[in-house]
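Handout for the seminar on molecular recognition.
Each group receives one record of this type.
Step one: identify the two inputs.
Step two: read the structure output and locate the region that could contact pyridoxal-5'-phosphate.
Step three: write two sentences on what you found, then compare them with the reference statements printed after the record.
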Amino acid sequence: MSEQQHRNKSGFETRAIHAGYEPDPRTGSVIPPIYATSTYKQDGVGGLRGGYEYSRSANPTRTALEGNIAALEEGERGFAFASGLAAEDTIVRSVLAPGDHVVFPNDAYGGTFRLFDKVQKLWGVDYTPVGHAVETVRAAIQPGHTKLVWVETPTNPLLGIADIEALAAVAHEAGALLVVDNTFASPYLQQPLTLGADIVVHSTTKYCGGHSDVVGGAVVVRDLEIAEKIAFHHNAMGAVAGPFDAWLTLRGLKTLALRMERHCDNAEKVVEFLTAHPGVTKVYYPGLPEHPGHEIAARQMRRFGGMVSFQVAGGEAQALHVCERAEVFTLGESLGGVESLIEHPGRMTHASVTGTDLEVPSDLVRLSVGIETAEDLVADLDRALG
Ligand SMILES: *Cc1c(COP(=O)(O)O)cnc(C)c1O
């Protein structure tokens, strides 16, 4: 059993606090220092003291974060990137070649769509955007040509749920890999590698960092051959997390379990309020029994998360009005921080997909429910809707 697998046997909260770093034997430092160094003194030519030679290739603060997130996802190797999109780009360059095809969710994060549509396509990787139903994905796979099935679950901003276990089987039947963007769930609520996914990707900017103070990304894998390819491209492309960013993200991960529990508690209270409000026409939350992905979500997630979207009576004008009137909910992009955020996907996060298959309803409002007092959040929405 590898050290990683050993560590994976302890509980999630224990791993979140301890995995990836042992107190420094020289100083006893409980928390990894921010190793603000680009290079390392060598004991003779090629004689590396701690295995470090240059901080693009590896840096001890980043190593601590990489070990931690790998343990939280129950993977073998973790890699920390400068952003979620840098992590995504590196996955594509690592496991695909020009001429390959990707099956891709039609309500993906807008920036992920843009990466495939405007960047990877020029490199020669084509994609087909489809719904995430198992039969739809199976039908979109081009035998011998499709090398990657990419899913996001829950999706952004419509909170659709993809069946990770079933999609892993469909991808593997076709000789393709399954990548899961686990940003919305976080490793606390869902561990895709344990359900058969080959690669997990995060925007750690969101729940993992959790405090809206750092941009970052992560990739976690179990298969060591895939790990070698990612490791090579991580260094060769160089979109690595800096030591201070890695330190902030690791600090965030330590409280992930506590934060996610409160995000879920508060989201449930907000959903209860919204579903009863006459000015709200539809609420999207996988915890609702009528949500089409509810059963799958109940099977593969610990709880249903902190993201809630809803449509309002009165069209786009009312949706914009609600976003602008909210006070406790801050009007802003991003998600997953301790503070509640509200936004209009059509004009903000998803503006780049207007006029494409990924366009979202114009009367849609998206909430990232934070960890403030639940009653204050509900009262704020009540006022904003009025
Ligand atoms: C934010 C986000 C990304 C992109 O990550 P960055 O850190 O902003 O580069 C990818 N996927 C999802 C689901 C996201 O929310």
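Reference statements: The chain has two domains: 3-254, 257-385. The mean pLDDT is 95.
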